[in-house]
Write a structure and sequence with these properties.
Elements: H1 5-26, H2 33-39, H3 54-63, H4 71-82, H5 87-95, H6 98-102, H7 109-117, H8 122-146, H9 169-189, H10 194-227
Length: 228
């Protein structure tokens, strides 16, 4: 008896979910098709009914909404924001933490996959570029919102591909730089001893928080000059 179309769609998602978890934990190059299918509880033969190769699978993971941060991290960020805490400071503290360094499967995909995707095919590179640009856009919107920049969207869903509107270009620049700092800090911290890692994490956290404070001061002064 042939499988239904619904069964095929569910199986595809099952493979994508298993691959996403493995890519986040072990990286792209270190994971084989056999490992993905075993994690999904399926045989290798079924793989090619859904994907051409591993690169095609990776692209599907991104297009399916491969999240940069795991649900527990997002939940902590929302809780901090509801409690009146500065979102960017909370984000930096969670991202640049020992827990993130030691649990890559629960964290951001960018530090794990960056160096490996660079050596992969063009489709994988394009999909990864999409992830980075989406992350930077959402971060830019958060920075602008915290500074009460007029004209931007009051609310967007951080878990979707929704693109924020009317975010000033300087916030887009700052967000890309901040993202690069944090990803680089995590990559370095995972490659060194604990004491050095702690120094890297703290220095980057402090730099981000101090940069935001200076930026807010400059914005206030500029606003005073306009209205004065």
């Amino acid at each position: 008896m042939p499988y239904s179309a619904d069964h095929k769609a569910k199986t595809r998602i099952r493979v994508i979910n298993a691959a996403t978890a493995l890519f986040k934990k072990e990286g792209y190059e270190n994971i084989t098709i056999d490992q993905v299918m075993a994690a999904a509880g399926l045989t290798r033969g079924g793989f090619y009914a859904h994907f051409k190769n591993k690169e095609d699978l990776f692209v599907a993971c991104v297009e399916n909404g491969m999240s940069l941060l795991a649900s527990p991290i997002l939940a902590k960020l929302r809780k901090a924001e509801r409690g009146g805490n500065d979102w960017i400071t909370s984000y930096a503290e969670l991202y640049l933490s020992r827990a993130h360094i030691e649990n890559p499967e629960m964290g951001c995909v960018l530090p794990t996959l960056s160096t490996e995707v660079a050596r992969s095919g063009e489709k994988a590179r394009q999909a990864f570029s999409k992830l980075i640009n989406q992350a930077s856009e959402k971060l830019a919107w958060k920075l602008a919102k915290e500074d009460s920049v007029p004209g931007i969207d009051n609310h967007i869903n951080l878990d979707t591909e929704e693109k924020p509107r009317n975010v000033p270009v300087e916030y887009e620049r700052d967000s890309m730089a901040m993202l690069a700092m944090m990803v680089g800090a995590v990559v370095l911290s995972r490659a060194v001893d604990d004491d050095t890692a702690d120094q890297i994490l703290k220095s980057t956290r402090d730099s981000i928080v101090e940069g935001r404070e200076k930026g807010s001061e400059h914005s206030k002064l500029a606003e005073i000059k306009k209205t004065g």
